[in-house]
């Protein structure tokens, strides 16, 4: 099964995604980490996420670009976090796919879907704050938006996490709470 | 506790007042109220502005334990807050801290709240109702 978990910054989407992985049963749990550490803030953020995963028995695989070169086993349960970092790495990092970011990322996603038992991808809602951005950032948003749409088409379930509350967009119950 | 969230200018306060039977005067304003007023109010609007002010004046330590204080001392309050964090990571360090803290604090309030409504275009969607 393929699940996409999205949400804003600080929405609790990582915690939700980790619990989703735990609910998918026993098996080797792989965490594909995509965030490069380049300053104190990112190091702190990575440390916070590592602490959250403690005791949940994840093996970490680092992948900053070239997702389709990651080789995993057919019974693996995989959590990839976060698509917004992976897409940015492909676009901006040396050795990244540049203009071919969407193709490179989706080739990796399709490869994982063939290879593993369950895949959960955490992505990010960066599309709604009405600020004007520079050209390169707008291009990045376009790539990430298209990747999110393509993943959602392939996914069995898509959930937006709103301050820790799952709002189901695809698969499962549409409205989790009723008035 | 009831939490009403949504983007800027979505009619959250009016929705909250109508849905939960409150008068406009019953809302404290997060943009100007004191901590004492917040902890004594039956409702607060612009809660994100309260977080922003405390962060500006007192730094990160100022909001440490804010969620616990509010849930502990004013557990029946109705909180109206903007939902932040739906844009590209801000370049400015304070703006990054502000949206991160607002997110974490609202996650804690949402976990505690019996009901959470999300307002878009003035229309509320109940996303949690215990």
From TrEMBL, chain A:
<dbReference type="GO" id="GO:0043752">
    <property type="term" value="F:adenosylcobinamide kinase activity"/>
</dbReference>
<comment type="function">
    <text>Catalyzes ATP-dependent phosphorylation of adenosylcobinamide and addition of GMP to adenosylcobinamide phosphate.</text>
</comment>
<keyword id="KW-0418">Kinase</keyword>
<comment type="pathway">
    <text>Cofactor biosynthesis; adenosylcobalamin biosynthesis; adenosylcobalamin from cob(II)yrinate a,c-diamide: step 6/7.</text>
</comment>
<dbReference type="GO" id="GO:0008820">
    <property type="term" value="F:cobinamide phosphate guanylyltransferase activity"/>
</dbReference>
<keyword id="KW-0808">Transferase</keyword>
<keyword id="KW-0548">Nucleotidyltransferase</keyword>
<protein>
    <recommendedName>
        <fullName>Adenosylcobinamide kinase</fullName>
        <ecNumber>2.7.1.156</ecNumber>
        <ecNumber>2.7.7.62</ecNumber>
    </recommendedName>
</protein>
<feature type="binding site">
    <location>
        <position position="81"/>
    </location>
    <ligand>
        <name>GTP</name>
    </ligand>
</feature>
<dbReference type="Pfam" id="PF02283">
    <property type="entry name" value="CobU"/>
</dbReference>
<keyword id="KW-0547">Nucleotide-binding</keyword>
<dbReference type="GO" id="GO:0005524">
    <property type="term" value="F:ATP binding"/>
</dbReference>
<feature type="active site" description="GMP-histidine intermediate">
    <location>
        <position position="49"/>
    </location>
</feature>
<keyword id="KW-0342">GTP-binding</keyword>
<dbReference type="InterPro" id="IPR003203">
    <property type="entry name" value="CobU/CobP"/>
</dbReference>
<dbReference type="GO" id="GO:0005525">
    <property type="term" value="F:GTP binding"/>
</dbReference>
<feature type="binding site">
    <location>
        <begin position="7"/>
        <end position="14"/>
    </location>
    <ligand>
        <name>GTP</name>
    </ligand>
</feature>
<feature type="binding site">
    <location>
        <position position="62"/>
    </location>
    <ligand>
        <name>GTP</name>
    </ligand>
</feature>
<feature type="binding site">
    <location>
        <begin position="50"/>
        <end position="53"/>
    </location>
    <ligand>
        <name>GTP</name>
    </ligand>
</feature>
<comment type="pathway">
    <text>Cofactor biosynthesis; adenosylcobalamin biosynthesis; adenosylcobalamin from cob(II)yrinate a,c-diamide: step 5/7.</text>
</comment>
<keyword id="KW-0067">ATP-binding</keyword>
<comment type="similarity">
    <text>Belongs to the CobU/CobP family.</text>
</comment>
From TrEMBL, chain B:
<dbReference type="GO" id="GO:0016779">
    <property type="term" value="F:nucleotidyltransferase activity"/>
</dbReference>
<dbReference type="Pfam" id="PF02283">
    <property type="entry name" value="CobU"/>
</dbReference>
<dbReference type="InterPro" id="IPR003203">
    <property type="entry name" value="CobU/CobP"/>
</dbReference>
<keyword id="KW-0808">Transferase</keyword>
<keyword id="KW-0418">Kinase</keyword>
<dbReference type="InterPro" id="IPR027417">
    <property type="entry name" value="P-loop_NTPase"/>
</dbReference>
<dbReference type="GO" id="GO:0000166">
    <property type="term" value="F:nucleotide binding"/>
</dbReference>
<protein>
    <submittedName>
        <fullName>Adenosylcobinamide kinase /adenosylcobinamide-phosphate guanylyltransferase</fullName>
    </submittedName>
</protein>
<dbReference type="GO" id="GO:0009236">
    <property type="term" value="P:cobalamin biosynthetic process"/>
</dbReference>
<dbReference type="GO" id="GO:0043752">
    <property type="term" value="F:adenosylcobinamide kinase activity"/>
</dbReference>
<keyword id="KW-0548">Nucleotidyltransferase</keyword>
């Amino acid at each position: 099964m393929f699940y996409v978990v999205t949400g804003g910054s600080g929405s609790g989407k990582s915690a939700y995604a980790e619990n989703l992985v735990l609910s998918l049963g026993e098996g080797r749990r792989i965490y594909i980490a995509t965030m490069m550490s380049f300053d104190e803030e990112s190091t702190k953020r990575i440390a916070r996420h590592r602490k959250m995963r403690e005791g949940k028995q994840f093996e970490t695989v680092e992948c900053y670009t070239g997702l389709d070169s990651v080789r995993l086993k057919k019974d693996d349960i995989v959590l990839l976090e976060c698509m917004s970092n992976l897409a940015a790495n492909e676009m901006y990092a040396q050795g990244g796919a540049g203009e071919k970011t969407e193709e490179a990322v989706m080739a990796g996603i399709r490869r994982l879907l063939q290879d593993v038992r369950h895949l959960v991808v955490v992505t990010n809602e960066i599309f709604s704050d009405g600020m004007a951005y520079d050209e390169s950032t707008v291009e990045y948003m376009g790539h990430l938006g298209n990747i999110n749409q393509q993943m959602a088409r392939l996914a069995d379930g898509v959930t937006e996490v709103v301050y820790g509350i799952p709002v189901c967009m695809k698969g499962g119950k549409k409205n989790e709470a009723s008035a | 506790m009831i939490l009403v969230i949504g983007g800027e200018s979505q009619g959250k306060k009016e929705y909250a007042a109508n849905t939960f039977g409150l008068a406009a005067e019953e809302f404290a304003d997060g943009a100007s109220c004191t901590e004492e007023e917040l902890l004594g109010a039956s409702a607060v609007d612009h809660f994100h502005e309260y977080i922003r002010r405390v962060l500006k004046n007192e730094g990160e330590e100022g909001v440490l334990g804010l969620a616990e204080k509010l849930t502990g001392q004013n557990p029946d309050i109705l909180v109206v807050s903007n939902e932040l964090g739906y844009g590209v990571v801000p370049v400015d360090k304070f703006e990054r801290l502000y949206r991160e803290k607002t997110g974490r604090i609202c996650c804690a309030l949402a976990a505690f709240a019996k009901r959470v409504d999300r307002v878009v275009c003035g229309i509320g969607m109940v996303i949690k109702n215990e």
